[in-house]
Amino acid sequence: MEEGSNNNENYYSKRRRKVEGMKVVVCMVVAQVAVAEMTVLYKISADRGMSIQVLIPYRYIFRATLLCPLAFLLE
């Protein structure tokens, strides 16, 4: 009985370590996708005639709007 539960614990601890290692990779992929999306949106906006001088403040406003509540909750 003890040996079977010990094997389960080993299995779940190995699995947990794999998931912990994957978190970093998933975060990096999400960050790269966000950067690529922003680049495409910049290109589309510039091609449609929006001024880059207007687009940059919008970027900072949207980032602050999204990140401030997240930082407040996590810290």
Topology record:
Layout: H1 2-47, H2 52-74
Poorly predicted parts = none
Number of helices in the DSSP assignment: 2
| Element order: H for helix, E for strand | HH
| Largest sheet entry | none
Class by helix and strand content? Answer: mainly alpha
Q: Percent helix among the residues?
A: over 70%
* N- and C-termini, Cα separation: 43 Å
Indicate the overall shape.
elongated
What value does the average pLDDT take?
82
Beta-strand share of residues = under 5%
How large, in whole angstroms, is the Cα Rg? 21 Å
DSSP strand tally = 0
Please give a structural write-up.
The model has no long low-confidence stretch (mean pLDDT 82). The protein is built from two helices and no strands. It is an all-alpha fold. It has a domain at 24-75.
Question: What keywords describe this structure?
Answer:
single chain, mainly alpha, transmembrane helix, membrane
What is the gist of this entry?
The chain crosses the membrane at residues 24-44, 56-74. This is WAT1-related protein. This protein has 75 residues and is mainly α.
